[in-house]
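CORE FACILITY INTAKE
Project code: CF-77B
Contact: R.S. (postdoc)
Sample description: multi-component assembly, two entities in total
Requested service: structural model of the whole complex
Turnaround: standard
Below are the sequence entries exactly as provided by the requester. Do not edit them.
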Amino acid sequence: MEQAVLQLGDAVAVLERTPAALSALLRGVPDTWARATEGAGTWSPFDVVGHLVHGERTDWMPRARHIISGDPRPFTRFDRTAQFDESGGKSLEDLLEEFAELRAGSLAELLSMDLSEDDLARAGLHPELGPVTLGQLLATWVVHDLDHVAQVARTMAKVYAGAVGPWQAYLSILRDRRGETA
Amino acid sequence: MEQAVLQLGDAVAVLERTPAALSALLRGVPDTWARATEGAGTWSPFDVVGHLVHGERTDWMPRARHIISGDPRPFTRFDRTAQFDESGGKSLEDLLEEFAELRAGSLAELLSMDLSEDDLARAGLHPELGPVTLGQLLATWVVHDLDHVAQVARTMAKVYAGAVGPWQAYLSILRDRRGETA
């Protein structure tokens, strides 16, 4: 079922659903869930939503524009921990709302670009990975969203790693990414 | 942040959000996503929602009742693949709606039981794991929900394992549970 290239409509179908999926999962949950982590150096659901807000401002559409503009310079590096400063003083609900608004704007702009197959094959220069196409960027945006949805669910699950008692043996999510940092 | 015992309010906060989270993620998505799997023997998002519907009918609240009733016999075994028969002819949207209705009923019944700390410490007999408490059952229900939310996100992400090109190196979700069955 793996696809070598993305279909724009399929990608947008996921990208437009992520804010609502995270809101449904997180809005109003006790801090037991919102502030849980998988251990030192890993992110809470609150941190993850802040990271998605930052990515929406600085990563995805700016890089898409960069590729379409034909700029031969490498992309600006993405700051993977900017949310630890930027989310200060905000609530999880503020961040979820901000993410939803920014994502709606990103997708409106993406669709207004009316991208052709040729556009999706255009390349830009990633500072570490080298040449990457616009299609690969958009596929990465989708997978990045889903990676963080899975991370939020996994992080919450681990709060009850002890509370499940003997059932631990059946719940493989409690063993995923054990000892890794985000 | 790991908790040895569950707090009923925390558990309900997750359990009541799962149907809306899965609906937000999946309702109306193209079959590219709804019918994707991680390979032979693994489940699509459609299969997962069918499994959650079956669990809602036969697993969680029936076992909670069993424990509270003081029945010394082991729980009825849970059929982990019942959805392959039961979901036949249904749409993903049918299953999402059925899941939301059944879950609302389960939680109404759970709350009406007005469980005390002593109730949560009562034990029933699992056919393979031996004695388990009601609190452990409810914690397992929560983790089981989150495990399947993460599975849906991971399964969808892997559709674009090739489409992301060189970014594959950065997207750890594409390497989670590689070669494992559901």
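Facility notes:
- The first strand of chain B starts at residue 123 and ends at 126.
- The radius of gyration of chain B is 18 Å.
Invoice: internal transfer
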